[in-house]
Write a structure and sequence with these properties.
This protein is α/β, with parallel strands linked by helices. The chain has one domain: Rossmann fold. It has eight helices and nine strands. The strands form two sheets. A seven-stranded parallel beta sheet has the order 3-2-1-4-5-6-9, sandwiched between helices. A two-stranded parallel ribbon has the order 7-8. Strand 2, helix 2 and strand 3 form a beta-alpha-beta unit. Helix 1 crosses helix 8 and helix 4 runs parallel beside helix 5. It is globular. This is SDR family oxidoreductase. Belongs to the short-chain dehydrogenases/reductases (SDR) family.
């Protein structure tokens, strides 16, 4: 009989929910959580993205085609009998000069990046408080720690996520619920790849990252899995920056 202790990085028998799971960082987070042993509810608006993800992990991934801003989605979360991990990943950006920011862009980012993140976290936290345990991981950004031209609204929303993370962590800690954020730099995804094809943009980003390389979705997923696991059992109210040193300069 082995007396070997299970790895604190494992997520066996845990139920995780990942929003924005169809592509990019969200999809990588699903893959990482599955590899660590979790059962994952993958949420995205595009059903075809979820079908391929579920087909790759038929025993581990449950697909929910849903809009996170829909009240019915929150009700669906509330109906879950167990939820151990939330990866609050949905977000958007529409870069514009501050003096030219359109009201529609402002409203879109406040709705998706802040309001929906708050409400989804609230729905998940109610289950976790009832359980007496859980880990909520907000997808922040390095722009939640610094400022940037043409990104005033995005920076504002991601700074809001950092404030939400800290306040939730303090309030929910007595109930055994940990709350953290992951703050990536520019990550190579299908959405950002065209941006990196601009030589000037690529040079500027590389000049700001001391590690001298572009982040990959797996870098972010690894941080998420760590924060979801018992290996991070003493970590709450923090922001794990996956930025190659951008914010340290």
């Amino acid at each position: 009989m082995s007396d070997q202790q299970p790895s604190p990085f494992r997520l066996d028998e845990k139920i995780a929910l990942v929003t924005g799971a169809g592509k990019g960082i969200g999809r990588a987070c699903v893959e990482g959580l599955v590899a660590a042993g979790a059962q994952v509810i993958a949420v995205a608006r595009t059903a075809s993205d979820l079908e391929s993800l579920q087909a790759a992990h038929p025993q581990r991934v449950q697909a929910w085609a849903a809009d996170v801003t829909d009240p019915g989605f929150l009700e669906r979360i509330a109906s879950l009998p167990q939820l151990d991990v939330l990866v609050n990943n949905v977000g958007t950006n529409k870069p514009q000069p501050f003096t030219d920011v359109e009201i529609s862009a402002l409203d879109l980012m406040l709705e998706l990046n802040v309001r929906s993140a708050f409400l989804v976290a609230q729905a998940a936290a109610r289950i976790m408080v009832r359980q007496g345990a859980g880990s909520i991981i907000h997808m922040g950004s390095q722009m939640g720690h610094v400022g940037a031209a043409n990104r005033t609204v995005y920076c504002m929303t991601k700074h809001a996520i950092e404030g939400l993370t800290k306040a939730m962590a303090v309030e929910l800690a007595p109930q055994g619920v940990r709350v953290n954020s992951v703050a990536p730099t520019f990550i190579e995804t299908p959405m950002t790849r065209p941006m990196f094809e601009d030589p000037a943009f690529h040079r500027d980003v590389m000049a700001r990252i001391p590690l001298g390389k572009i982040g990959q979705v797996q870098d972010v997923a690894n941080a998420v899995v760590f924060l979801a696991s018992d290996a991070a059992g003493m970590v709450t109210g923090d922001s794990l920056k996956v930025d190659g040193g951008w914010t340290a300069v």
